[in-house]
């Protein structure tokens, strides 16, 4: 391609882990910021995003290279979105390319055209068609398709499998067409919600709705409502006028909170296009959904963390459900917090934002106390729904059967006999968290981590939950040859096995990451719980999130002791959130429920506080402790992590960094480390870290910038992999 005599300059960002931007020559007229161009980089051709048109470059004019091609006529990201990403680059001190490209779906990163492409959509052939009443799933599929064509992926997340669609296609009721659904302008029909579809709000709900609706412009609200208090109903009602005004609404949910139930509640209320954005979608589906946000053809977007970075044509409100959930923080690469960026985005667009939770994060409670958020409280459940009774069961001196005390088993039996469901939680999957030789004491340890293998009896394998390494179960002890290999400790598989022996007449389902890997299997299990196929539900915290099972009257946490002695200062906050969430599974409908906690420490202040006084009370005293210790949210942290296959390389690097950094730090910035990570060796890598803490964000950021500049000069930095985590949620 020939470049005219006086080409212009383009400043672009490339998806590379370098903390800088790049300049190229480009023929006039220059593509505007937010467009992609292809450029030569090293000996490759890469997709780059245009950021600006600089007057001149630091690079010598003779060394500037011309771009390859302009890929977009229209910018992919609007000016406001580019500004948000620029701000995020500064705030998280991360390589700009990785920040900007995080906002683009994979296909666009690869240079694909920003256009809808023949995704096969399922269409209804006959609007009147029906199927027999027994074919419930097929009926559901037809009902969904009556509202418009959907992709197989969109149907899947609404609980309709490929097999159901094939069955309907065979009956010639639906067909798959490689074309786009007609883009209707939903604004005309935005919200024809019949008034009698909506429940009458409780006083607390009505107050929350009216306060949010009367707010103009940027206004953050913290909606603290116990489980079942009707937060979702509040979301639905505050969205209504926003949609009626033709504006879009973004609803962020935690990773595993996106279920057919969630989507259908929005769908039942509003006859507008709804898109989902989550990790289970394929690249094409993601791009289509992304495009429909950007061009405004979708009205409501329900998505996980990364949906926040999606461009919107007319965003009018942001809602973050379960705002305390840690899945909103990305844990690798560009480590942003979707909640924090969402607040920034709302401020930038001057729109309201609502953070909802039964157990708000300490950060948000602190912000509410400081007047930054307006606090709205739902303390009651509407109608006849009751709040569960809490019971602490002392495990001391008690003969346990697979982690279940006789008292607990008796409670389980009582509820089952009444035709109710029981739910048992244990946050450890597998059969046993360690495998031990009974004769010589040998322990099956992962070679690559400071961790024991978990014994998965079902698959007869040893599995390291930290590096994912797996191996077959050894037939005998590799150390002494004994065949007496026994599991120690308790996992969900073991609980399942014990209960199926004790209660053979009841259906038992275990829900953890091991048996929900297959696409759609999680939905299937949930379905089986709801239609009464199972009476005993065993699971990890996967089961705790957001699912509503009206027949569950007993929930039990089998082992609450671990969290009481964890080293991370956030462990108690996390435990309290999980406990309240688990407790929220009981007594949601009209049946009264009971929450049982098995512990060796029934007198522990934290447990007493939670069981008798509730989360708010606990949070209040825990926040005072944080304040006394000057821990977040009363201070700010940044964490440098480093790892390498040789421990001394990591130590040398961090020690050199500290040596040069310390003399230049103001006394108000605390520098802790280098310390080994909680698990020093993981997947063959030795891991160390350096924590910076300050009560002033600006000083902390300055210290981080200084450290980054020093790292650039350290030769030892090139022998390790390191990263910077601003506002880390895991230490
Ligand atoms: P949360 O999101 O706070 O856990 P939900 O919004 O799921 O609570 O509400 C719990 C149940 O109560 C749902 O079945 C919902 O339809 C119902 N509900 C919510 N608000 C009301 C109300 N004002 N009157 C009657 N039922 C309500
Ligand atoms: Zn042995
Ligand atoms: Zn391992």
Describe the 3D structure.
The structure is a single chain. The chain has 731 residues and is of the alpha/beta class. It is 31% helix and 22% strand. The protein has 21 helices and 30 strands. The strands form 7 sheets. Strands 11-12-10-13-14-9-15 form a 7-stranded parallel beta sheet, with helices on both faces. A 6-stranded parallel beta sheet has the order 16-26-25-17-24-23, with helices on both faces. The protein has a 5-stranded antiparallel beta sheet with strand order 2-1-4-3-5. β28 and β29 form a beta hairpin. α1 crosses α11 and α17 (571-583) packs antiparallel against α19. It is globular and about 85 Å long. One zinc ion (ZN) is lined by residues 437, 439-440, 442, 477, 479-480, 482.
């Amino acid at each position: 391609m020939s470049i005219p005599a006086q080409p212009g300059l383009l400043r672009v960002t490339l998806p590379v882990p370098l903390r800088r931007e790049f300049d190229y020559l480009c023929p006039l007229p220059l593509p505007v910021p937010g467009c992609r161009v292809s450029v030569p980089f090293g000996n490759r051709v890469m997709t780059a995003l245009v950021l600006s048109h600089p007057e001149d470059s630091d690079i010598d004019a003779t060394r500037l290279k011309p771009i390859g091609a302009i890929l977009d006529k229209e910018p992919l990201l609007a000016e406001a979105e580019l500004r948000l990403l620029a701000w995020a680059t500064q705030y998280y001190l991360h390589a700009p390319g990785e920040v900007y490209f995080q906002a683009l779906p994979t296909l666009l990163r690869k240079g694909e055209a920003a256009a809808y492409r023949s995704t096969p959509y399922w269409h209804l052939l006959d609007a009147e068609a029906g199927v027999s009443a027994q074919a419930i799933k097929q009926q559901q599929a037809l009902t969904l398709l009556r509202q418009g064509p959907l992709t197989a992926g969109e149907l899947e997340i609404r609980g309709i499998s490929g097999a159901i669609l094939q069955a309907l296609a065979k009956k010639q009721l639906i067909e798959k067409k490689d074309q786009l659904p007609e883009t209707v302008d939903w604004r005309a029909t935005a919200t024809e919600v019949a008034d009698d579809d909506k429940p009458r709000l409780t006083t607390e709900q009505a107050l929350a709705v009216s306060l949010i609706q009367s707010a103009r412009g940027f206004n953050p609200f913290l909606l603290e409502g116990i489980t079942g208090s009707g937060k979702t109903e509040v979301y639905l009602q505050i969205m209504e006028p926003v949609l009626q005004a033709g504006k879009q609404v973004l609803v962020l949910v935690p990773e595993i909170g996106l279920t057919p139930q969630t989507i259908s509640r929005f769908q039942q209320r509003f006859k507008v296009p709804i898109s989902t954005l989550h990790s289970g979608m394929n690249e094409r589906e993601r791009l289509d959904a992304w495009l429909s946000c950007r061009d405004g053809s979708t009205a409501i977007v329900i998505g996980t963390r990364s949906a926040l970075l999606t461009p919107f044509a007319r965003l009018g409100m942001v809602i973050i459900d379960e705002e305390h959930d840690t899945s909103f923080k990305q844990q690798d690469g560009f480590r942003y917090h979707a909640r924090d960026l969402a607040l920034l985005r709302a401020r930038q667009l001057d729109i309201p934002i609502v953070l909802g939770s039964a157990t708000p994060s300490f950060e948000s409670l602190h912000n509410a106390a400081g007047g930054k958020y307006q606090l709205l409280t739902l303390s009651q459940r509407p109608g006849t729904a009751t709040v569960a009774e809490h019971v602490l069961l002392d495990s001391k001196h008690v003969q346990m059967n697979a982690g279940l005390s006789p008292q607990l088993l008796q409670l389980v039996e009582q509820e089952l006999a009444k035709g109710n469901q029981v739910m048992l939680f244990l946050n450890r999957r597998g059969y046993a968290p360690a495998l031990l030789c009974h004769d010589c004491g040998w322990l099956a340890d992962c070679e690559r981590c400071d961790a024991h293998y978990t014994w998965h009896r079902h698959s007869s394998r040893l599995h390291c939950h930290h590096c994912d390494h797996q191996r077959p179960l050894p037939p005998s002890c590799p150390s002494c040859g004994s065949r007496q290999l026994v599991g120690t400790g308790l996992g969900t598989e073991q609980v399942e096995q014990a209960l199926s022996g004790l209660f053979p007449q009841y259906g038992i389902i275990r829900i953890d990451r091991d048996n929900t890997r297959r696409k759609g299997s999680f939905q299937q299990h949930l379905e089986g719980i709801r239609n009464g196929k199972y009476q005993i539900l065993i699971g990890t915290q996967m089961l705790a999130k957001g699912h509503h099972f009206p027949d569950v009257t007993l929930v039990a946490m089998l082992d609450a002791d671990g969290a009481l002695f964890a080293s991370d200062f956030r462990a108690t906050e996390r435990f309290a959130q999980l406990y309240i969430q688990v407790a929220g599974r009981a007594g949601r409908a009209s049946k009264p429920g009971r929450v049982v906690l098995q512990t060796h420490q029934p007198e522990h202040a934290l447990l007493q506080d939670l069981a008798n006084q509730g989360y708010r009370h606990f949070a209040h005293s825990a926040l005072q402790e944080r304040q006394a210790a000057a821990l977040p949210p009363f201070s700010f942290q940044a964490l440098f992590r480093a790892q390498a296959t040789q421990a001394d390389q990591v130590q040398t690097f961090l020690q050199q960094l500290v040596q040069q950094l310390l003399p230049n730090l103001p006394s108000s910035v605390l520098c802790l480390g280098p310390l080994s990570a909680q698990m020093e060796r993981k997947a063959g890598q030795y891991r160390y870290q350096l924590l910076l803490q300050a009560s002033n964000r600006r000083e902390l950021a300055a210290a981080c910038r200084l450290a980054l500049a020093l790292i650039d000069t350290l030769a030892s930095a090139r022998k390790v992999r390191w990263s910077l985590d601003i506002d880390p949620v895991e230490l």
